[in-house]
Amino acid sequence: MIEVTAFRDQKVAVLGLARSGLAAAEALQRGGARVLAWDDAAAKRSAAAAAGVPIVDLAQTGLGGATALVLSPGIPHRFPEPHPVAARARAAGAEIIGDIELLVRSRPDARYVGVTGTNGKSTTTALIGHILEEAGRKVAIGGNLGTPALALAPLGADGVYVLELSSYQLELTQSLAADVAVLLNITPDHLDRHGGMDGYIAAKRRIFGVRRPAQSAVIGMDDAPSRTLAAALASTGVPQVIPISAETRAPGGVYVAAGTLIDELAGTAQRVLDLASLPRLPGHHNWQNAAAAYAAARCLGVAEAEIVAALRSFPGLAHRQELIATIDGVRYVNDSKATNADAAAKALACYDDIYWIAGGIAKAGGITALAPLFPRIRHAFLIGRAAPEFAETLAGQVPFSRCADLAAAVAAARDAALAAAKPGAVVLLSPACASFDQFTDFEARGEVFRRLVAALPGGRA
After folding, report:
1. Is it the case that residue 100 has pLDDT exceeding 90?
2. pTM for the full model?
């Protein structure tokens, strides 16, 4: 764990005591800060208290003269309405920051790779980390992906932090000047938390530095907002802007042509790798992830041959098009991380003869944008709060069943796939929804799916 010494002998309030908040409270205490911590959930307060974190009701007693408020990224501080404690902190002039800011202040000599984007950032973060590890670099991988930033190992100048950064985390970060900053894509998401699309884009832009610019900016060219940001960054002091694309040539960058990864960083197009040979990176969307990871690793001095070897050995990520099993010729794929329609589209585009499990808490727009992919779906099995809305969208276009829960959906999808007796059938959990109506998070949803598949006849229960 990191010791945060920047607030030694100062009062610091911590609001939100889930994984990142609890790690922040403990790291601040280790560094000598006087911590006042709170979570609106009693269970989180109890767990923190058991870990020795002082619990103070910040809403009732106030901030007690705290210098800063460390806010868990899920708690709103501006839109759609600020949490009362955040509003009080802002009125009192207290600094409102997050755990990434604490990490950067605590380990200023380390190198940083930051990865953001609406979709693909988890896979790209893990892929960059894997490449660096295989190349013998000292690496810590986390942030929005898995391990909280302050629970990572302390690194110095010989180490690289590879961090997945959400828009929520970025808007609480001021001091990050990444050695490599990666922006994969921008499509509408979390608009209520950022006051609209402009606010969302502004939060994403912070990956490139607020107080100091990043050294290298790797930017996807396959959507208009990202292209606009790339053009703007070229005149703002970022030393190196590297375009990447899975769809078209990116002059001076890294891109994909006819399924082949192309390196044009030195000005001449060099064929690097047939991406179809990477079974753990299926689909067009993973081409962009591979291009971004390749470009980031090259920025850090990793040789082409080392990157290619690491791409081939990448094991993939849980809950991101994870092949759980093939039973009686039917593949079962866990894509629980697909919490919006754009992410689900990436999975739907990879398969034919899909028996699709979808639903939960829908994002704005639902699944209407997925209509061009509906012909790939043989039957949809709808769960959760979004089931009625999704049923309306699918009516007359895709056969569907409304299921009480995930267990019922898996059983029904299996029966339908076997009854069709068509080679290549896929039971795909790609919900296009948040999970919070039935599960604690997308990981819990994916783990339940894994257990359900293992318990099927022919599974490995």
Report:
1. yes
2. 0.85
